[in-house]
Structure formats: C-alpha cells, structure tokens
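subagent[fold] <- orchestrator: predict structure for attached chain, return tokens only, no commentary.
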Amino acid sequence: MRKNQRVAEMAEEVLKRQATERVERTGEPLVDAFEVVLDTEAGRQLQELRDGAHSEERAQEWQQNIRRERIEERRTEGGDR
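subagent[fold] -> orchestrator:
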C-alpha cells in the first residue's frame, strides 16, 4: 500500500495482480483472467471495495477504521455473553 493510496486504487491493484498471476499459470488472455478473478468471492469483495462507498477514502485510514470497528464489535460481543 502506498502513502495516500485510495481504497479503489488498492483494490484495483490486487485484482490486477491476481489476474496477472492467473495469466502466468494458465496462459489465458488477461481479459479472461480478470473476468475469472472477478467471479470469485474475493474478487467480488474487491470489486465492491473498488466501486463502493469507501472507494475514495485513503486506504490506510480505511484499514485503521476497519480495525477499530472490529475491536469494538468484539468488545460488544464479549459483553453480551
């Protein structure tokens, strides 16, 4: 992750890297490999990040917010037991 990189850019880089790795393994065209990657659960999640509400946020800030939210969720779940 680069400094000041947006969530959309980070997600797009991961999708491209996965597609490129698939091309190297299978020899299929990049366009086809990209479509296959997008058709996976991980690919759909990355596409949602790339195109979703958080796409313009700085990736580093978004990741920190996600961590805080998960910690808070664990605290809340732990208190309910």
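orchestrator: received. Logging for downstream: Helices lie at 7-26, 30-38, 41-51, 59-79. Residues 59-79 form the longest helix (21 residues).
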